[in-house]
Amino acid sequence: MSQVRPPGASFAPLPPGVSHALKPANLERTYRDFLARVYTVQLWRSQIFKVVSQPGESDRDFRIRLAQMSRERRDFELDKLRQRYASKFDTLNRQEASARMEVDRQQQQLGEQKMHTAISVGAGLLGALLGGSRIGTIGRATTVARGATRVSREKQDIDRANVKLQEVQQRKALLEEQVRQEADRLVAGLDPQLEMLQEIQIRPKKTDILIRGAGLLWVAE
After folding, report:
1. CATH assignment of 39-202, among 1.20.1260, 1.20.58, 1.10.238, 1.10.287
2. What pLDDT score does 45 carry?
3. Residues 6+ apart with CB under 8 A from 155
4. Counting beta carbons within 10 angstroms of the beta carbon of residue 109, is it exposed (0 to 12), middle (13 to 18) or buried (19 or more)?
5. What is the distance between the alpha carbons of residues 137 and 145, in angstroms, rounded to a whole number?
6. Which terminus of the chain faces fewer neighbouring Cβ atoms within 10 Å, N or C?
7. 44 burial via Cβ count (<10 Å: 0-12, 13-18, 19+)
8. pLDDT value, residue 52
């Protein structure tokens, strides 16, 4: 502090207590208290991804960074979801293929039985026209009746096979819907645009503040 008066100026006594405050240790302590009380660093925390924004990173920039993390996490979680249900879908696909084969087999048997019955009916009509014996006519009629019974039974078998196929397809559709709903919830839960970020206010610790120098500036009016 200069001890020389500028032209036209004069010295005046300092206010009470200022001399004590001018001590460097007191100035540093006062300034350190001020910094710890006033200055803060605002950060954002994502509970979903367990990360905190960088100092000076805005909410928008932080969400953009989270979006990239979200895509990577989403792909990973969806792959885990597919793997978790893969064995169930494999089982249902095999059951569906087996049920389809059974329907086809029953339909083929029905076609063959209809053909045999038609042949028996034709043979019976031809025998009657040609004057076959009564016993032969009765035998052919019995054969036709049995054929009709088999046709009816084959139709019932087809109905049962179709019901089984529909049951498998219904279970598969329900499982697909369950997976779709889980995937939708998973994707929505990883959307950084929907997350309510936690605001963090960090104040400096007094022990972490380094003051390289302190002084008093007095501006005369």
Report:
1. 1.10.287
2. 93
3. 110
4. middle
5. 12
6. C
7. buried
8. 93
Count the alpha carbons within 13 Å of 129 in the hemisphere toward its beta carbon. Answer: 6
Q: What pLDDT, on a 0 to 100 scale, did the predictor assign at position 23?
A: 67
3-class DSSP state for residue 131?
coil
Map out the domains of the chain as residue ranges.
Answer: 39-202
Q: Per-block average pLDDT, block size 10, for the chain (221 residues)? A: 65 64 70 82 90 90 92 92 93 89 72 55 45 45 50 68 87 93 90 88 80 64 53
Determine the pLDDT at residue 146.
52
Count Cβ neighbours within 10 Å for each residue of 141-156 and write b for 16 or more, e otherwise: eebbeebeebbeebee
* pLDDT value at residue 93: 92
Which position has the token pair 């924004």?
A: 53
* Residues recorded for the chain: 221
Both tokens of 168, joined, read 């498998």
Structure confidence at residue 129 (pLDDT): 46
How many CB atoms are located within 10 Å of the residue 114 CB?
Answer: 16
Q: Give the pair of three-digit tokens for residue 196.
A: 């309510």
